[in-house]
Amino acid sequence: MMTRDPALSREFLRAVGGLSDDQLRLVLKYATDLASSNSSQSPVVPARKSLLGSLSHLKATVSEADIAEARREMWGESAGPNPTEPPGHP
Asked: Which listed residue, of 10, 13, 26, 77, carries a Cα 20 to 30 Å from 4's Cα?
C-alpha cells in the first residue's frame, strides 16, 4: 500500500468539495481510469493535430521584407541591427 500525503488529501477534498454531481462523476471516472491503468504508463494524452498547412487555403505569402518590417515594428531599435539587412537599411 502506498503512503499518502495528508496535506495533499485535504487539498484534494477541498478542491472537489465545490464541484457539481456531474463534475464529481467525471473526476471519479478519471480517477478510476488512472487506478486501473498500468502504473508504469503515463496518462493517455490525446494526440494533437498538426496545424501545418491549415491556413494554406488563404494563399497568403510572406516575404523576407515583410518579416523584416514586422520585426522592426515589434522590436524597434531595442534588438539592435538586424544582421539580415544591409547597413543603412531603414
From this structure: 26
